[in-house]
Specification:
By secondary structure, the protein is mostly beta strands. Helix content is about 0%, strand content about 45%. It contains one helix and 38 strands. A five-stranded mixed β-sheet has the order 5-15-11-17-18. Strands 10, 12, 13, 14 and 16 form a five-stranded antiparallel β-sheet that branches. Strands 19, 21, 22, 23 and 25 form a five-stranded antiparallel β-sheet that branches. The two termini are about 45 Å apart.
């Protein structure tokens, strides 16, 4: 699944009048390829969508916006967040309050700052709408918005966090559920000027669940809709895989999974189906870990399960392999698999490669003080990844190098209310996961952003765990850090005088 939707940069080279135009160099017939290497340039536009955070009157939601400084980016530009209308209001002909010119009044929860400086805003209650964000120019490369909600009591109590995602046309969510005590919604947000048409499919332990309600769901322009999964099928399932496919248009999608006993959190889309998967940064004090897998093809998958620990790759006792039947969702209880140490799950095929999607549901705490969160399979950090809304003494950064050893640079931005940026470099040994002591801005006031950059070595996978402010409750949320795709490869254009002679 594409984590960021990028606008390709139009590039043109002005040439001397003798040629009149440019051409990308091609082989000259001598066997020597003279094509200039492609350049990586900053993207010029980024879209982000934040789902409506909560239906609880007790909800307190913090938004944090941050764009890392990108070399070569346009010095001009801006980023804005506007409210999306609910689909019900749109269908009923209702709309937000209009100004004297008939245009919709917007009251953004925050105003994004210049690159390198985070900005924060807050809302309370159950009426906070979904948000549609657009960044252009220098604000676009790597722009991230974190939405963090604290709910004091009731279903889904605890900490719920989501890194606002980009619009796309396909999403996989292994780890949803419709059992008693579970209330899961799929949130769809349409950022465009035309309606989007979406199909929602559910897959349980015996395969696809029959549902007609999820077919051809229309999401009006600039609006958002949440759909209760239990209204799509009467079948009760502990483990469900939700597939969102877009027939026309594009949407942002996320699943809000709420539980009466273990709180709740956002389940973001898993990485594209693949035969090799990494689920980074399971909290070391996890009291229960449940792995949920699904293979969308027509072939069963057999996977080797290993844990990248601080000392290397180990095989969990009793869970050496897992068999995933084609078209069926498989759930496996791994218990306290981390045993008090940092860890990331590494899944590889035992024989032939079969594409799979996966996520884990993690529980912290005991008894009445349990809280849950989700970690989907994630793409590597790549060139750069950023996560916002980090807080002093409440942030844990996990870095995993499942293959080769790697070196990464981690930069802490200034705080939303003050502080000086700080940077540290870390070396992660092959096959390990490390909970590193991430840098914190000097004189920190407010929250800050962490930017991770790969310096050398193999792929690095990362996640950030944020814990709640109440030490007596195991409230937490986990966000993965895939590549922000803040740059795009653009072929270089060279003069080719021979074209005028043909």
């Amino acid at each position: 699944m594409k984590r960021t939707t990028l606008s390709l940069i139009a590039c043109a080279t002005a040439l001397a009048a003798v040629t009149g135009f440019a051409a990308v160099s091609a082989p000259d017939g001598s066997g020597t390829d003279t094509a200039a290497p492609a350049a990586r340039l900053p993207v010029e536009r980024t879209s982000l969508l934040c789902p409506a955070p909560s239906t609880s009157d007790l909800a307190e939601t913090a938004y944090t916006s941050f764009t890392p400084v990108t070399k070569g980016a346009d010095e001009k530009g801006s980023a804005t967040l506007t409210t999306a209308e609910s689909a019900d209001a749109t269908e009923d002909g209702k709309s937000d309050e209009k100004d004297d010119k008939g245009e919709k009044k917007e009251k953004p929860v925050l105003q994004p700052e210049a690159p390198g400086t985070p900005a924060a805003g807050k809302t309370t209650g159950a009426d906070t709408p979904a948000l549609i964000g657009t960044a252009e120019g220098g604000h676009a490369p790597g722009w991230t918005v974190q939405q963090t909600t604290e709910v004091a009591a009731g279903t889904g109590r605890g900490l719920q966090g989501v890194n606002c995602g980009a619009p796309d046309t396909e999403f996989w969510f292994p780890g949803a559920g419709t059992t008693t005590g579970r209330t899961d919604y799929v949130h769809l947000t349409n950022p465009d000027d035309s309606a989007a048409v979406v199909d929602i499919e559910l897959y349980g332990k015996d395969g696809a669940l029959k549902t007609t309600v999820g077919e051809g769901v229309t999401v009006p322009p600039h609006s958002s809709e949440s759909i209760l999964l239990s209204t799509l099928s009467e079948v009760k399932q502990t483990d469900l895989t939700v597939h969102v496919g877009v027939r026309s248009g594009r949407v942002g999608a996320a699943v809000q999974a709420l539980d009466d006993k273990t709180g709740g959190d956002w389940l973001t889309a898993a990485a594209d189906p693949a035969s090799d998967l990494v689920l980074p940064g399971i909290p070391k004090d996890a009291t229960a870990v449940r792995l949920v897998l699904f293979t969308p093809g027509g072939t069963d998958a057999d996977l080797k399960v290993r844990l990248a620990s601080p000392s290397g790759l180990i095989t969990p006792a009793g869970h050496e392999t897992v068999h995933v039947k084609a078209g069926m969702t498989t759930g496996v209880d791994l218990g306290e698999v981390t045993r008090g140490e940092a860890g990331s799950l590494v899944l590889t095929p035992t024989d032939r490669a079969v594409p799979v999607v996966a996520a884990v549901r993690v529980v912290r705490g005991k008894g009445d003080e349990q809280e849950s969160a989700f970690i989907p399979a994630s793409d590597p950090v790549g060139a750069r990844a950023t996560v916002a809304d980090n807080r002093a003494k409440s942030t844990t950064l996990a870095l995993s190098a499942p293959g080769e050893a790697a070196q990464v640079k981690v930069t802490a931005s200034a705080g939303t209310e003050g502080g000086t940026p700080a940077t540290k470099t870390y070396t992660i040994k092959a096959g390990t996961t490390q909970n590193v002591e991430a840098p914190v801005p000097a004189g920190l006031k407010g929250s800050y952003a962490l930017t991770v950059e790969t310096v050398s070595g193999g792929p690095v996978h990362a996640s950030r765990t944020l814990t709640g402010s109440d030490d007596d409750v195991a409230a937490f949320t986990v966000q993965t850090l895939p590549d922000d795709r803040g740059t795009v490869s653009v072929p270089n254009a060279d003069e080719d005088l021979s074209v005028v002679q043909k």
